[in-house]
Amino acid sequence: MKIEKLKINHLENPVGFALETPTVSYKVSGAKGVRQKCARVVLAEDEGFESIVYDSKDSEEIVSTGFELPVTLKPIKRYYWKVEVTDDTGDKAVSDTAMFETARSGEWKAQWITPDTDKKTQVVLFKDIELKRKPKAARAYIAGLGVYEFYLDGQKQGRECLLPGFCDYDSWIQYQTFEIELKEGKNRFEIALGDGWYKGRYGINVDYTEENYGDKLSAIAEIY
User: Fold this and answer.
1) Could you tell me the sign of the dihedral formed by the alpha carbons of 139, 145, 149, 154, in that order?
2) In what order do the strands lie in the sheet with 23-29?
């Protein structure tokens, strides 16, 4: 028996997502039996599962398509979890360890940066930070108005392009979380901003519109 495709809220090992209602799911293959008799979900704050947050014990209430964890999660915290399944023949298997990391919370301490340039100018914002020693871990939380790309020491971070993608800026502003590796000495952060759907041309015919949500490019970022 093999337990795979471990997901939380339909995401595999997500970092920096809001998970107010954490719901785990998984897939079972190669079982001797035809159905799941019971399952056990264990959640911990460490990869060695010494600091247990939740242990369902063997339960017939757990379903592989979605089981809501009755826990309150801490912000900016990494958790580890695994599943043990027993089928109707008594065959058992334990999954590999999966992880997820929760989002930031509360008000932003950083302020929006709006370049004082001609509004048609596409800009790159940058800041150098000097560190006395290499951090064990670091995260960058970034939002841009309109689209942006994030660079660390000249290297693009993340695989996505034109973040945050199309969204209704009147309703909410998306931010993204980047798991970054900083070094001792100087680290340069750069955010390249473009008009995108926020203030750029929208539509493909002669009736296109511009500046649907705003007329100034801006960005905000926090490093933890």
Assistant:
1) negative
2) 2-8, 23-29, 67-68
Q: Which amino acid appears at position 140 of this protein?
A: A
Q: Phi and psi (nearest 5°) for 215?
A: -125, 10
Residue count of the chain: 224
Which residue type sits at 102? T
For residue 43, the SS3 value is strand
Of the candidates 75, 58, 70, 59, the residue with the CA atom closest to the CA atom of residue 24: 70
Strands 155-156 and 147-152: antiparallel
- Given a contact cutoff of 8 angstroms between Cβ atoms, the answer to whether 131 and 173 are in contact is no
Closest to 224 in 3D by CA, of 106, 149, 160, 140: 140
Mean pLDDT is lowest, of 27-31, 94-98, 117-121, 151-155, for 117-121
**Structure confidence at residue 206 (pLDDT):** 72
Report, in angstroms and rounded to the nearest whole number, the Rg of the chain calculated over CA atoms: 22
pTM: 0.86
Q: Which pLDDT band, with edges at 50, 70 and 90, does 147 fall under?
A: very high
| The pair of three-digit structure tokens given for residue 75, joined into one six-digit string | 């912000």
Chain segment 11-43, per-residue pLDDT in tens? 999 999 999 899 999 999 999 999 999 999 999
